[in-house]
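Obj: model holo form, ligand = oxa(dethia)-CoA.
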Amino acid sequence: MASSSPRATITACERFLPDRILTNEDIERTVDTSDEWIRERTGIAERRILDDQPTSFMATEVAKGLLRRRGISGDDIDLILVATITPDMVCPSTACLVQDRIGASKAWAFDLLAACSGFVYALVTGAQFITSGTHKRVIVIGADRMSAITDPTDRSTCILFGDGAGGVLLEASEDDSGLIDFELHADGSGCDDLNVPGGGSLWPATKQTVEQRLHFIRQEGRTVFKFAVQRMAEVSLSLLQRNELTPQDLDLFVPHQANQRIIDATANKMKIPADRVMSNIKHMANTTAGTVPIALSEAFDEGRLQPGNLVQLTAVGGGLTWGSALLRWGTAA
Ligand code: UT7
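Output (holo structure tokens):
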């Protein structure tokens, strides 16, 4: 990043969670599992479920909230980016639906797919248009209605996921706040470790693909678990190191919320004190692209983010994808 370019800073953050709560006890009634097993193995107690609405509904609520918090209108937005693996439709993008609903008449809009790393990927992408001076205001949202692609009869996945969305508004920084640096990665050889095989051009929807349950998310749980811990710690430390920082310099570490044991193991590897690690998985479960911005928005509303704080966002997900972003917190709404 050239030193003369402004940093992209977060000037507002927002989240949307559906009202309906699905508890572990509710799931006990439908598959062979227990509240005890789920809490012990994942740290999850409950998740939110969106009924009768698509992902764009949650993303639009987030976008409206960002405009409200910042006191601006849709016309002030130049670009809308939505990270999701549960778009309303294959085409058009969910971002275009949000663009229309908030009246962002001057904005262009597109979706970005990097699964659970989606928000970190999208944040970095959106920031480039601020840093280059091309755009003044960019909305970046991570939103997933995971209940739409989760097999309610598969106990290895139905316990893990929830619905939700979060997002941020990016603008040019007038001080040293904003995105300091990032590191992003992909390894497509891990495609089979975590995927939703049906509904694309490989397996277009047919009676057979539905019968074979190919439209649901599937994963190699243990493989993904180990990969997540190793890569999240590795990329976070690498990014800190090249900026001559250490985990002890962080005011808040916001990891992807996939499993409390993954969060704890990553924090332990990095030697970050637990009180500087954001976790809300107990009540939200894994909302895929939503986890990081939802956690960020909660942390902000709880007063855990103050101007000047050093914040690291790190995620891992299907692709496989992983990455980290380092921010200096500014003045947000
Ligand atoms: O966002 C990125 C996407 N996903 C992830 O990050 C998930 C990463 N993986 C995980 O979080 C964990 O691997 C899981 C929570 C999915 C599973 O936990 P685990 O400790 O790795 O369990 P396991 O898959 O090794 O299974 C242990 C046992 C098995 O039984 P046997 O073969 O030992 O008899 C499973 O059949 O637990 C069984 N099991 C369950 N038992 C009760 C699997 N799911 C359940 C369940 N309730 N819901």
